[in-house]
Design a protein that fits this description.
One of its GO terms (biological process) is L-ascorbic acid biosynthetic process. By secondary structure, the chain is mainly β. Helix content is about 0%, strand content about 50%.
Length: about 290
């Protein structure tokens, strides 16, 4: 990677000084024109309305990795340390669906997204980051889950190509972003390496896809987000004022506003660490979907 050019201050807005310990899982909810994201280690869920900039925080009973909107019911499906759950807010209610890993007691769900057919794809990881016990799961609208891939150190991502035929999924511990062929019925095949991060890039973390098929990846310990073309070539990078950005998402009615989450864990000396940022990425997001169950 060439030397990282400074990013104009006007291109980045420090949107919410939430000081998340481990901010993650940003998702745009078109029902409310709002952004949701979590603080995994802080056990909190945050919401930012895009028009009024209203900020709301809910405390959770345990570590929460993500929430994803439901298409036909109110609320969300959430990924807790204990497994999948249906979540509603105001008042807060949690209905447990089940754990895909009852035999992996130290694992937790870490990151997830919904594909074009309304299925959730969710990764897991060892909470101590010592074992390669993470896996990739598919949660169908019937609430049946299937283990689709295994052996991850830190499962991250995932994201999909605009046509829905490719799934990208990351093992942050190995610095590898994988690419899979994804069939309409939810089968995976043709696993291959999409991007292998160099040491100086940091670690690939959460990611999203733009309307042209570019894959935007947050660089944990790399202080940037980068866009990679569909063939895995580095296209451009945007420097950030925090060293541990964690994920990114396109939001807004036109999907032309990018938001980036970050972490303060291990970076207590960085004044902006753990904040939420809005970045002028010069791109529009691929369509996002809600869970069909």
């Amino acid at each position: 990677m060439a030397a990282l050019a400074p990013t104009p201050a006007s291109a980045i807005t420090y949107t919410w000084p939430v000081r998340a310990t481990l901010g993650e899982g940003p998702v745009y909810d078109a029902r409310e024109d709002a952004l949701y994201f979590v603080d995994i280690k802080g056990k909190r869920l945050h919401r930012l309305t895009l028009k009024g900039r209203a900020q709301t925080t809910w405390d959770m009973p345990e570590a929460i990795g993500w929430v994803l909107p439901r298409a036909t019911r109110p609320g969300f499906i959430a990924g807790f340390k204990s497994g999948f759950a249906a979540l509603t807010l105001d008042p807060l209610t949690i209905h447990r669906i089940g754990s895909p890993e009852p035999d992996r007691a130290n694992n937790r769900l870490n990151d997830a997204k919904v594909d074009a057919h309304g299925r959730i794809w969710a990764g897991s990881m060892d909470d101590d980051e010592k074992q390669s016990s993470g896996a990739l799961y598919r949660l169908d609208p019937s609430m049946h889950w299937t283990r689709m891939d295994d052996g991850y150190g830190v499962a991250n991502g995932p994201t999909f190509s605009p046509d829905g035929a490719t799934l990208y999924h990351t093992d942050s511990a190995r610095r590898i972003v994988y690419r899979f062929a994804l069939s309409r019925d939810g089968a995976l095949s043709e696993r291959g390496v999409f991007v292998r991060f160099k040491d100086e890039w940091g670690y690939p973390d959460g990611m999203t896809t733009d309307s042209e098929g570019g894959v935007w990846i947050a660089h944990w310990d790399g202080a940037r987000i980068s866009r990679f073309t569909p063939d895995g070539a580095l296209d451009r990078s945007i420097a950030l004022p925090v060293s541990r950005p964690t994920s990114c998402v396109f939001a807004g009615e036109a999907l032309n506003r990018m938001f980036v989450t970050s972490a303060s864990i291990g970076r207590e000396g960085e004044p902006l660490a753990g904040g939420l940022f809005e970045v002028d990425a010069g791109a529009r997001g691929a369509p996002s979907f809600a869970f069909a169950g």
